[in-house]
Amino acid sequence: MADSKRINKEDIGRLLDEWSKEFSVSVPSRENGMPAVLPWDGKDTSFLEWYRNTVIPPKANFFPPYEKMFDFQKEAEGYHLELPPSDKQKYLIFGIRPCDARALTMLDTVFQDTYQDPYYLSRRANTVLVGLGCTNPYDSCFCTSLGIGPGESTDVDLMFTDTGDGFFIEPVSDKGRELLAATGGVEDTLEADEARAKDVKKAAYRKIIRRVDTGDIQQRLAACFENQDYWEKVAAKCVSCGICTFLCPTCYCFDINDELSQDEGTRFRSWDSCSFPIYTRMPMENPRQEKWRRVRQKVCHKYWFYPTNLDITACTGCGRCIRLCPVNWDITQTLNNLPASS
Amino acid sequence: MTTDVSQRFLARDNVYLPHIAVIEKIIDETPGVVTLHFNFKDEKLREEFTFKPGQFGEYSVFGIGEATFCISSSPTRRDHLEFAVQRVGKVTNALHRLDVGAEMGFRGPYGNGFPLDSFTGKNLVFVAGGIGLAPLRSLIWNVIDDRDKYEKIDIVYGARSPADLCFKYDLDAWGNDSSINMVTTVDKGDASWTGREGFVPQVLEQAAPSARNAVAIVCGPPIMIRFTFPVLEKLGFTPEQMFTTLEKRMKCGIGKCGRCNIGNLYVCRDGPVFSFAQIKGFISSEY
Amino acid sequence: MEQRLRSEVKALLKQGKIDRVIGFEPGSLKFTTTPLITSDGDDVDRLVINPFIVNNLSVYLTGTSGRVGIVAKGCDSRSIVSLIQDNKVLRENVVIIGIPCSGVIDLTKVERLAGKDRDELDDIVHQGDKITVTVDGKKKEFPASEALFDNCLGCEFPTPREYDILLDEPVTPTPDKAISEQKLDSLREMPQEQRWQFWKEEFSRCIRCYACRNVCPACFCERCFVEESEPQWVLPVPRWQDNLIFQVIRSIHVAGRCTDCGECERACPVNIPLRSLTREMDNLVEELFHYKVGIDKEAPPLFIAYELEEAEDLIR
């Protein structure tokens, strides 16, 4: 690639430093043993050694676990509503994985569809994504079954590939091309660098051992939608917590709640989960009272309803749901074992 | 898909920010239901605002929360707007406690509304139970205000008891309208009730409106809807001729928060008005 | 124990003594097991017993119908007794298949010891007081006390006292309270202000997934207090204040029912040391009410019982 560059690993700190002049830079960090994308402290680049993927997905940087929608005050002449001040800061996320970057592209469609969600979209517009290809996928990863790969991404602005001694850098978007052109301290690449990067990407692809058969998945789900026996078996060990949905980079359900103190207060939005029993509860009835209906909803939303509406599967194979489920409920098993018909 | 109309009524370019509205009148419909008349504080919005019958809004009591109600007044009568609230929880209780002059929030209009254009020249059969008459009421008055466009009108309406009948002033007006066949029933009468007794689906079967060149619009508690559709089918209505407006727990009202779906359809965005043909595949599972 | 477990369960199902069994089968990830809930005799050969059977399966008993065979370690069996005391399940409806437990392996600890993630390890074996971890073909030994869960290290009841079938000889308890409560001790030594800061930071990570609550058999309320809206006790918004209140109230609610199975802390995806709260609550219950949870199925639940002559030394 004509405009690709490279950088040695020991120069990453300097690179992040340079970018910190223009952006608020976030990198993988491991506070309390829990990997997350957090603001860079300006010094620590040890994540280059241990980083595989985070627990909380990068969606939290654009769609946080909770945020203020607006404040309200009751004054003499009536209610006064105040939006949070617009954040003019520019952000850069370093090290986002291809699965999580694809998830953001997917979330874009939700938050732009018909109505524009101002909170998510303004953060997205202000953020540069610097992707980092995987070299050591988990045994829970299955991105290759969803049409993406651990080494490549069309959903980032710049793509870094770990070639051992350094990184091979490719611009992906125009934003990324501009940034790279303006970035100092990066070297031109040789053909050997490009060949090495290709090998690394291929090796990563081969390391993904988990597979889901996604052929005809919509039809197969439709065929067993009414099969209560199957879904009861599938849902039996689920405990209806929110781990799979909250840690899923493509899940976006949210709740809206008001807080009141005397004559003023705030409207918040916060993460919600279709796994929770009260998610669809109405005063007179709850269409998803039974656990099997909620588990069925989650699987069908991701692999059937969402793709029907917007043409992409609402799953990027990041595997967090499998890795972190307290009872090891495994969506790949559920999908691979779908009965032929009800 | 939602109409473009709603996009025009954004407050400060933020889809989640409500407009301020003022309560102008409160009508006690039943012990648990009130109708609230309101108008926007902003004059320009008051003049420009319009909607389709069947569309809904998200109404805020600031500090308590937001809840979903259809707009129960007709877009042909816009000196004020109306919605009906049944007291069942935190927000609805707060709405019941509001006085005339109180301020609330409104976001909308959302949803698809009734496909009025496809109803012209047809016979209309309205079937409603309890507070389910509210969205139909908007459509009925709209139709009455444009009477020449439509053929026969049949209305079958019922409630649990005489005290639970909503919009009694409408029932009187429609009963006195010679171009409307108004049938009111209660599940169980009281000492002073001289009208019909019987469940809405059975009364509908007795009234036996013809399905020829007709469209049926049904709204009420899920159990009533579940028993009404088979009656209509027996009378010859096809799934494409039967419409309903569904209710689901909602929060954002604009198809983002994820919770109101039936299959791949969102009640807030692809509905709340659906033909039976659209939801047939999912109705047994979700309802 | 595995062979015996499988033959016993097959017999129970065949004889119609149970409608289904709740046990463990190999998980879909290395060194993981997952609950197996089945009424199909053909599935029984999947049942396993190994050092990774972490879940407290009694969480599946509340609200269940029919007769259930359930595999239980020491802590789990006490949870079952506690549920029986609370009338959430009838004794005659459970066939308790007891496992005398030598402790369950904490994969987080092993990962730290080995310097590698779980899926990068070749093997983990627990024998006696040693854990052997094989990484890249090389074996490394560690004392078991560095690899088992904290609550296992302080366990006073490793062998189920309430059971229908005991799969092996009872295990002698060797509780080491000091090691088991190391985290709690360091908290106790902190001055109050520092401790408050600690918990404030910890709960800033909480995302209110409710995994802690949902894996806990003691949390059997059909409608949790956080789900109430009239009055709204706690907002669902995951601010540290709301999160802290939720967890503190939850800890108080499970007092007298918590058997220190440690599931809440293990399930937490953001590594909040929840057991430090629940264990301290257990200690208080033991100290104030002289009560150990899940020992006597005939006893009334601690906070529901009332006697005229009650210890009043708790009122200070």
How would you characterize this protein structure?
The complex is a heterotrimer of chains A (342), B (287) and C (316). Chain A has an 8-stranded mixed beta sheet. Chain A is of the alpha+beta class and 342 residues long. Chain A is built from 12 helices and 12 strands. In chain A, α7 (217-223) runs antiparallel to α10 and α8 (228-235) crosses α10. Chain A folds into 2 domains: 5-207, no CATH class; 217-336, no CATH class. Chain B is α/β, with parallel strands linked by helices. Helix content of chain B is 23%, strand content 30%. Chain B is built from 7 helices and 15 strands. In chain B, a hairpin with a 2-residue loop joins β13 (261-262) and β14. In chain B, α5 runs parallel beside α6 (222-234). The two termini of chain B are 23 Å apart. With 316 residues, chain C is α/β, with parallel strands linked by helices. Chain C has helices spanning 2-14, 74-85, 107-114, 150-153, 177-180, 182-189, 192-204, 211-214, 240-254, 263-267, 275-289, and strands at 20-26, 33-38, 68-72, 94-98, 123-127, 130-135, 138-143, 165-166. Chain C has a 5-stranded mixed beta sheet. Chain C has a 3-stranded antiparallel beta sheet with strand order 5-6-7, covered by helices on one side. In chain C, β1 and β2 (33-38) form a beta hairpin. The model of chain C has no long low-confidence stretch (mean pLDDT 93). Chains in contact: A-B, A-C, B-C. Chain B binds chain C through residues 89-90, 93, and chain C through 229-230, 232.
